[in-house]
Amino acid sequence: SIMDGATLEPLKIVGTRGMTVDGEYHPEPRVASIVSSFVKPEWVINIKETGQIKLVDYSDINNLKETTIESAKFLHDGGWDSTKRYFLVAANASNKVAVVDTQEGKLAALVDTAKKPHPGRGANFTHPQYGPVWTTGHLGADVLTLIGTDPAGHKDNAWKVVQEIPHIGAGNLFVKSHPVSKNLWADAPLNPERSIATSVAVYDTDDLGKPPRVLDVAKDSGLPETKAVKRAVHPEYSADGSEVWISLWGGKTDQSAIVVYDDKTLNVVKVITDPKMITP
């Protein structure tokens, strides 16, 4: 659905049904994620079940122009590289990450990864050996995967897995970095072990061989332990990169919280909670 940005009035509805990358017709594929290009008036639309990526020129919505890129199933979350030219999106049923060159309007690469990549938006930082990289975690593997993203300055590493970092467990949903920080944060809320699901790991991007600092977010919230696991999920930086905010997902009736950490010291800055804050 294309809507007016100010009023949210629907302006146009465009169907997603069509052929999958396997050559089969799908009557009702879902849109997994949409982002807007930084280089042209165009949306990058990832059609989950078909494995097709649509580049849609929205400069004239009465005469839409679409470029269809075949990638892999099932498309899910994704994010930009540090230059905002390339969009990287997980095809988690295929254990791949698709790389779209939004300037050229074509697929740059399909990168094989560990099982079920799930990047959220992914995390960018400069690796001391491999240069600029983009990071994804995994639902099905206990590693964080680093993919080289600099075809101009580090051609030999571009669109390749340059390193896998051991994570505290599988079940990751989000990784996060910030341009002014040397930390890489990663959760594991879907891990079956309580102690892992309630925690996040913080890696030093200058020394990735060093074990991460592991923070038990549920314990740091000060809330009592309940039958349901309080899962630590989605670390998110403040705009200036000084703090990281992490949500707790609890049970259907359990009080939950947002725990705020200082990015440098990893100390708790604030716990935001209320009996009415319930996030099952």
UniProtKB/TrEMBL annotation:
EC number(s): the record gives 1.7.2.1
List, alphabetically, the SUPFAM superfamilies matched. C-terminal (heme d1) domain of cytochrome cd1-nitrite reductase
Q: Write down the Gene3D superfamilies for this protein, in alphabetical order.
A: C-terminal (heme d1) domain of cytochrome cd1-nitrite reductase (2.140.10.20)
Entry keyword Oxidoreductase: yes
Q: Is the keyword Cell membrane assigned to this protein?
A: no
The kind of enzyme this is, by top-level EC class, is: oxidoreductase
Q: Which residues form a coiled coil?
A: none
Kindly state which keywords UniProt assigns to this record, in alphabetical order: Oxidoreductase
Cite a single GO MF annotation. nitrite reductase (NO-forming) activity
Listed name of the protein: Cytochrome cd1 dissimilatory nitrite reductase
Question: Which source organism?
Answer: uncultured microorganism
Q: What is the lineage of its organism?
A: unclassified sequences, environmental samples
- Which gene is annotated as encoding this protein in its UniProt record? nirS
